[in-house]
Write the structure tokens for this entry.
Amino acid sequence: MRTGTLAAGLMPTAGVAALAGAAGLAIAGTLVWAALSPEAQLFGSTLIAPRRPDEVALTFDDGPNPAATPRLLEVLARANVRATFFLIGEFVRQRPDLVRQIAAAGHIVGNHTMTHPWLAWQSERRVREELVGASAAIEDALGQPVRYFRAPHGARRPAVLRIAREMGMVPVQWNVMCMDWKETEAGSILRRAELGVERNRARGVATNLLLHDGGEQGLGASRMGTVEAVEQLLVYYPDLRFVGVDDWDD
Ligand SMILES: [Zn+2]
């Protein structure tokens, strides 16, 4: 749908060369869309959300983060809600104690690479190093294998998804994001979350909500806006069922 719009928007008024150029641009546009659009499946299937409109998977990327993760765990525990955390391997190496806290609370711990690069543009060797490194760090902390993987920025190409699957992992994308990868106030995060949940309910699918309890630049990022937004979301939507992504992995 988006690619069609893009192609139409780029269609030249005259000239075979211009037409060929537009076709090339349309193909390039399709490839960029397949690599970056969170819901595109052209480069291989990813787990997003089933047709269960009253379910929400809270997913938290870029941790663990001593400045936000412990507080977030308290908020989730109070509401008795299970979530999914996609962790950056180099932070796992620095704070394995936080990783153990997340897992001990019953949440899912997934792989978000070692150093958070744009994997779509990396060599296969680098992709493998990033995925293997992060899984090793998590397994050293928890003593159990890693089942779920999320590509940084959602950026992938077929080789990225293939390597993740070869390692026994399921690639997970999202269908709602709250733009909280940098410090953001709770109100705007909550509004984006609510709009996304309502839109997904209207189209009959669950919500896979992308949030951030950490920041890719380093440990200590301020994400209290995110924590506060989650606290409010759990209060405002008692009729939603909050699940881990493993509930959707048949
Ligand atoms: Zn990330």
